[in-house]
Each structure stands twice: as C-alpha cells, then as structure tokens.
Fold each of these.
Amino acid sequence: MIRYALKCHAGHSFDSWFASADAYDKLAAGGMISCAECGSTRVEKTLMAPAVRHKSAGSSPQAAAGETVPAPSSDPRGAYMSREGEMQRAVARLRKEVEENSAYVGSNFAKEARDMHEGTAPTRAIYGEARPEEAKKLIEDGVPVLPLPFIPKRKTN
C-alpha cells in the first residue's frame, strides 16, 4: 500500500491510499480518482513529507521503540484540526449523497457492478462491499468503481 498527498484543480488537498503506484496511475488515467470535497476528477499528486525513522533512542518514545515518526509539518496545529474537521464534514456529505441516491447491494457489489458493465443488468447507482481481490479484478477489467471513504451504516454497530 502507498499513500499519496493529492490536490484537485480547485485547490482542495487530501490523502488517499493505493495498492501500488501502478494502481494509482491506472485509476488516475481512467478519471476514477476524485476530490472528496468537490468531486473533481482533475487530481494530481503533491509533495509529501516522508515518514522518518529516528536512530537516536532519546529523540522520542516512538523512535526509541523503532516506530516510524512522521516528519514535522509546517502547518500549525489549529490549521490541521480545521482541515480535518472540513474533511470529516465533506465525508459526511458524501455519505449522505451516496445513501440517498444509490442502492445498497452489500456483498453482491462486485457481481452487480460487473453485470451492469457487461449490459446484463440495468444501469443504476449502487454501493456495497467487495473483497480486495474482487475490487482489483473489477479495476483491471475496466469496470468503473471507486472505494468510498466510509463504511456503510449497514456494516456498523
């Protein structure tokens, strides 16, 4: 897995995880990466501070334990918290939009998406779950799917 810092043409910054650099390239080329805030598919990678492993035992408890410690950010803490709150609100708006305008198909997602892509089922907006290998196969076969940044409410307690 690889995490990229991304930015849309409207200037919204966000992070996303991808199976590999090639997976990112395929999704980006297919216009399948979109901004969580405005929905734009004009998205590009931005510079990202690497995680740094400190060798000195006294620099921090995480470093002493051999854990990866993120590089310091130039953003003040308040700006970070504000951006985090904005992203949470954007994800909440996206969840509401998806749940109000799509059919939940649960674990049948991969089959339903493939059937619509192949024309054997009527096209409609759906969401649900797919195992990683199912999602990978859908993407490889050109079926337009995207991971959602939330767990469907039907899967939460």
Amino acid sequence: MLNVVAIMGRLARDPELRQTTTGKNVASFRIACDRGRRDANGQSQADWIDVVAWDRQAEFVCKYFQKGSLIVVDGRLQSRSYQDKTGANRTAVEVVANNINFAGPKSSNPTPMGDNGYAAPMAAPARPAAQQAPAPSYSAGSNDDFALIEDEGDLPF
C-alpha cells in the first residue's frame, strides 16, 4: 500500500519537544497549509495539520524552527485512538515526519544564535566594454563540419 504525504506551510506555534519513557525524542507541532482558494467572504482558507517527528528530526525541528517558519514535511499519515480526560474515545490523525526541510529564505528562519540571515546581495562589478567577450557568430564559417549522411532508409536497430 502507498501512504505518502508532503506538506508545505507555516508553523502555527513553536514545536514541543518531549522524551518518551525509553528516552526517545519526539516533537509535535502543527502546520497551517493554505488551500490556495478563498471563501465567499474573500478570506484565505487553511488546513491545520498535526505533525509528529522522532529522534533526530525532532531535535532538528525544535532547534531551527519556530512559530511562523515556512517548513516542508514529507512522511506518512497515521491515525491513533485514545481516551480524553472525560473518558470519551477520540481519534487523532497526524503526519509522522520522515524528512523535514526549510522552505523559505534563511532570513525567514532565524537561528537560535540570533543570526538574521544572509547579507544583502552585492552587485557584480561592471566589466569594461573592452573586456567583454564578443557574442559567437554561428552563421559565419563553412558547413564542412556538417556533411550529409547517406542512408538507404535502414534503421540501425
């Protein structure tokens, strides 16, 4: 069976890192994924997708992402059942992340060390007209390099 999910969106809140009783890291977070269309009132519509990441992926997302960060997640869809505080049976559907990637420019995902992203791009220095290479002329020269190949209609395969 095929169970593949790929989502790109923004984090609804900071990821939450926990540890299981066996010491495995697990992070949970929610992604707001734009549906790409507006409702009758002209408001954008979004889906709120719960995501779970384990081990190194959990550490990565908690270290480099925070609320509002643009993120790409691919993984698989998983459902689980549990009882809430009132004893009612509930079902949760969530994405279990296989890969987590940055989706925006570095400046939109500042690191915890306070790095504000890349510096503004610098323009390349202008070259004087004398140093610029002339444009190639494809129509000049002889056609000796391009000889007609004679064949009898037979295909080589």
Amino acid sequence: MKRQALGPAIAILTTLIALPALADGDAVAGKKVFNKCMACHDATSEKDKLGPHLLGVIGRTAGTAPSYLAKYSQAMKDAGAAGLVWDETSIAEYLRSPKQKVPGNKMAYTGLKDDAEIANVIAYLKADPKP
C-alpha cells in the first residue's frame, strides 16, 4: 500500500523542485526560442497576428486581450472565465502541451518539450524591455 502512495508523492515533489527553475530562465536565449512562436505571436507590441499578442501576457487572464476578443476560441474564453491567469506555472504548462492545458483551443503548435526552452521563453515574455 505504501509503495502506491509514493508514486504521486514523488511526482508532486519533482514538480515542486522544478518550479523554481522556471524563474531562472534566460531572456536572451528565450528570444531565440520565441522565433518558433513569431509566425503567430508578437511579444514586443500589441500587434495581433494569427494568435494574440503576448506583450504583458504574464498576469493576464486567459482569453482577455481586448484586441483579440472576437478571435479567441470558446475554450480559451471559458478557461479565463473559470479563473485561468497566465503566471509562470500556468504558462509553462500551456507551452508544454497547449491542448492538454486548454482542451479545444485553436493553437496548432504542439508545444515545447524542453524545460530550459520553456523557462527561457517565460523569461523573455517577462522581460521589459525585451532583449
């Protein structure tokens, strides 16, 4: 019985240990990783592209960028209405697996798999001014 309970405990501990690493990303390296996102998103201005701009996304409620309101999927609007706010943890989960974090969203990209790349993109998104 005790061995079965150990698995979830290890998973939780691993997640908690990894979370501080998100804060240690490199914004300059994140700018390079963000090149994968630039076809659909802008992070340096409030210009929307295929997807919403990401300027100031950290701290924003999901599905609420005013300039993109008519284009968000219902799933993203519903996630925001349910309380999803983009912080380091939630955006890391979304970057890793957009369809898992917000099922039914319109983003076609399957996600970043490398923890360092995710931390770096988050550091880039948080940087003001951008490198």
